[in-house]
Design a protein that fits this description.
By secondary structure, the protein is an alpha/beta fold. It contains 17 helices and 19 strands.
Length: 474
């Protein structure tokens, strides 16, 4: 457990949340919005300013990220956090369990409103990834949406919106989020009023059939400046490039926990070099084979036969699926990126097939030059690559600035090579003044952690050597 020492920009977040009862925090990916919000919430609870906070978030974030942050930092360890997810009876029991903070995924919000009705007890709501609120309409949504809106202003005295991308699809995404802060005072009492004021329509020709037209929504020239002016008093916007050194990638660990059954397989393989999955015995013949199997279990699928290697083209019958914890973690990163493309590095071909199954729009980095052109043109939302396939000479920096290591391996050079494809130097050379984000999805208490530690050690040794050689050449 570590002490939480907030960065200067996180102190700004904390002060903003405490000073503004209903506010929005627009801060880039990986800037520590969760921990800063916990610090503010902890202070408000201690001061008696709030009694029952609720966090709304995507499923994995509600189930794991917020509880993990409480466990991670010494200052928050006394907070009791209860996630209201899972089957109905489990949610109901959690809802009535005494806690300091409750977390709920957005999909279960209708259930919660129906369960509580006019007995809404939450006096602070933190909407994590608040773009999920954009579809709420003042004049639409039925009785449950109306109940939520009434509870928001009658019983919820504080409301905080958190997101790194407040308007991923344009300014129209803002209304549903800001409405929960001021009941339409700044941007309009209804979405239609918001549209009428700042948006118009024009006829446009179809690209395919020039003799046909369709109606296209346009943003009035004055809209952006006016909207920004109206909401700036309650919105704190923090840009990563103002706070981070763009010469280095910003590395963030994303920790996942193995489910109990997968943990059992992991321990058996680690200690006995053998485990049984679905009546199929799986054996490792030496320490190297054991480590390989453990890495596979950490990623979520394990090869069955020792004579099937990753050099072959495996089929589904060659491995067993164990868990989707890393898949769900990647979904959370996709949600936080809100449309920004992701370069995802995998190691095992079973992982590649599982990723393609989970993300049908993902593309594999192949030898077709058109793939790289389409990635750099922003036409590929997720590009999957084995680090070895992203060798010297590939220019991928125009397509994105987010790299996710889904599974891990011991070799440093391929790992650095794929990072270099979108790295800080290439971003600058192409005129992109933006940070490079690196996410390591790591299964806790597994060999994943050992690999990351070993990789970092190799990197440190190499950097020391390069620096020493540089000095000798001066």
């Amino acid at each position: 457990m570590k002490d939480f020492n907030p960065h200067p920009y996180q102190r700004l977040m904390v002060d903003h949340i405490i000073d503004h009862p209903r506010c929005a925090l627009f801060a880039g990916m990986g800037m520590g919005k969760t921990s800063a919000s916990l610090m503010a919430t902890s202070g408000l609870l201690m001061a008696g300013s709030v009694r029952k906070p609720l966090v709304l978030a995507p499923l994995r974030v509600a189930r794991s990220t917020w509880p993990d942050e409480v466990e991670k930092w010494r200052q928050f360890n006394g907070l009791r956090i209860q996630n209201i997810t899972g089957p109905v009876e489990q949610r109901r029991d959690a809802l009535h369990t005494k806690a300091d903070i409750y977390t709920l995924n957005y999909e279960q919000l209708p259930w919660l409103i129906g369960e509580l009705g006019d007995r809404w007890p939450f006096d602070l709501v933190i909407a994590d990834e608040s773009t999920r609120l954009k579809n709420v309409r003042s004049e639409q949504g039925g009785k449950r949406a109306a109940t939520l809106r009434d509870a928001t202003f009658q019983r919820t005295r504080r409301w905080v919106n958190l997101t790194g991308t407040p308007a991923p699809n344009g300014l129209q995404d803002l209304w549903g989020q800001i409405y929960f802060l001021d009941r339409g005072h700044r941007l309009g009492k209804s979405f239609s009023a918001f549209e009428e004021r700042w948006f118009g329509y024009q006829r446009a020709k179809q690209a395919v059939a020039a003799n046909k037209t369709y109606i296209k929504r346009i943003v009035f020239p004055h809209a952006q400046e006016e909207i920004q002016s109206k909401i700036k008093d309650i919105c704190l916007t923090l840009d990563p490039k103002d706070w981070f050194d763009l010469d280095d990638p910003i590395v963030r660990p994303v920790l996942v926990k193995l489910p109990p059954e997968s943990r059992r397989h992991y321990r058996e393989m680690e200690r006995q070099l053998f485990t049984e999955v679905k009546e199929q015995g799986i054996e490792a013949f030496n320490a190297a084979g054991r480590d390989l199997k453990c890495l596979q279990i950490a990623s979520g699928a394990m090869y069955i036969h020792p004579d099937v290697t990753d050099d072959e083209q495996p089929r589904a019958k060659h491995w067993v699926d164990l868990h989707d914890e890393k898949i769900e973690a990647l979904r959370s990163i996709v949600e936080e990126a809100a449309g920004m493309p992701l370069l995802v590095a995998y190691h095992f071909k079973s992982d590649l097939i599982r990723l393609q199954r989970a993300f049908p729009k993902a593309r594999v980095l192949d030898e077709d030059p058109a793939t790289i052109d389409q990635w750099n043109a922003g036409e590929i939302p997720m590009l999957l690559s084995h680090p070895v396939s992203a060798g010297h000479g590939l220019n991928l920096q125009d397509g994105g600035n987010i790299l996710v290591y889904f599974s891990h391996w011991w070799a440093l050079e391929p790992r650095q090579q794929i990072l270099e494809r979108i790295g800080p130097m290439r971003q600058k050379q192409s005129g992109h003044e933006r940070p490079v984000w690196v996410y390591n999805i790591v299964a806790e208490d597994t060999i994943d952690e050992d690999v990351i530690l070993r990789i970092d050690s190799k990197k440190s040794v190499q950097e020391v050597l390069m620096d020493a050689m540089k000095r000798r050449g001066e």
